[in-house]
From TrEMBL:
Keywords: Monooxygenase, Oxidoreductase
Protein's name according to its UniProt entry: Antibiotic biosynthesis monooxygenase
GO molecular function: monooxygenase activity
SUPFAM superfamilies xref list: Dimeric alpha+beta barrel
Annotated InterPro entries: ABM_dom, AI-2_Isomerase_LsrG, Dimeric_a/b-barrel
Residues annotated as domain ABM: 2-100
Keyword Oxidoreductase annotated: yes
Protein source organism: Acinetobacter terrestris
Keyword Thylakoid: no
Length: 106
């Protein structure tokens, strides 16, 4: 099982953030039906006043669970992901993808 963390840097401004969030709202149910997908979750900063929290307001994080790199690659080639990229191309500045695995099995 792979854990994918996609850090999506968006342009400043509420309209850019809302466009990306709305686009994810549309595709998430479709992605969750893909073969090899075991989780697809959008994460944003929690609003709190704790001093130890680092907030990145122009960032959205996707936490994904995929069976294999092949499943992840197939996901990236789907029509809905191609459409997503076109719909947010003016809103997204950069995407950094980390493909992780569990480091400890207890």
């Amino acid at each position: 099982m792979l854990i994918v963390i996609a850090d999506i840097q968006i342009r400043s401004g509420a309209q850019h953030r809302e466009n990306v969030l709305n686009t994810f709202r549309k595709i998430t149910p479709i992605v969750l039906q893909e073969d090899g997908c075991y989780g697809y979750e959008l994460l944003v900063d929690h609003e709190s006043d704790v001093s130890y929290q680092t907030k990145v307001p122009d960032s959205i994080t996707m936490l994904e669970h995929w069976e294999s790199v092949e499943h992840l690659n197939a996901h990236l080639q789907t029509p809905h992901m191609q459409a997503y990229q076109q719909q947010v191309k003016d809103d997204v500045l950069d995407v950094k993808i980390r493909i992780m695995q569990k480091g400890l099995s207890i």
